[in-house]
Structures are given as structure tokens and as C-alpha cells.
Amino acid sequence: MFQIGQFSRLTRVPVTALRYWADRGLLPPAYVDPETGYRFFAADQLPLVNRLLVLKDLGLSKIRLLTNNSKKTDAFIYGGYDLEVIDQVPILGPIHEHNERYMTTKRDKMGHKLP
Question: Is the full-model pTM beyond 0.70?
């Protein structure tokens, strides 16, 4: 685990951007200390940061996001990427007795776009 400052230096992404992405649900911390509120990131989050930076470096102006999470769409719109999200395509998998409660919670409490 890396403290946010360490992760910032490792990724060369400003701490303010990491906080912004975390608050918008685009790059949630791997762990948040319940007493201090300090954010920690994991090494397995590095590929996601790299993908975000590649989108920025490619100079894309419009994207379609494959996600059920509207917070991720908002993060792209307001995250300083100059990217226009032209569509949010939900990822729909089968709903069955083993995941029905989980999927319902994601839809009703987290605002995910699910049937």
C-alpha cells in the first residue's frame, strides 16, 4: 500500500488529481483509514492510472464509456480531461438468485445503471 503522496510521486499524478478521481469514483482508494481519513492506493491500481493518462495523452475529445457507474462518467466530464462523454453504455450481465440482491443494491443505493 502507498500513501497518497507516495502514489502521486510514483504515478506522477498530482495529489489533487488523485483526490478528485477518488471523490468521483474513478479511482477509489484501496483503503481509507477510518480514524484519519488518509487514503491508500495499491500497486494493482497502477494500470488504471496508466489507462487514464493514455486517454489524456492521446488527445481524445470524445469517448464512450462502458460502465454502469455514473460517477465514472462524471469524473471524466469534470476531471479536466477535455473529454466529452458521448455515451455511457451499461455492462449488463445475467441477474440470478446469487447476485440479485447485490445488483439491486448497486442500482438503488449507488445509482448504477442496471435493469
Answer: no
Beta bridge partners of 32: 39
Cβ-contact 26, 52 below 8 angstroms:
yes
Distance CA 22, CA 12 (A): 16
With CA atoms as reference, report the closest residue to 28 among 37, 38, 19: 19
Domains along the chain with CATH numbers: 1-58 (1.10.1660.10), 59-115 (no CATH)
Give the residue carrying C-alpha cell 480531461: 81
Pairwise CA distance, residues 2 & 40, whole Å: 5
CA-to-CA distance for 33 and 41, rounded, in angstroms?
A: 11
Contacts of 75 (CB under 8 A, 6+ apart): 20, 21, 24, 25, 26
Question: Over the stretch 19-74, which tens digit does the pLDDT of each residue have?
Answer: 888 887 778 899 999 999 999 999 999 988 888 788 778 877 777 777 877 777 66
- State phi, psi for 42 to the nearest 5 degrees: -110, 160
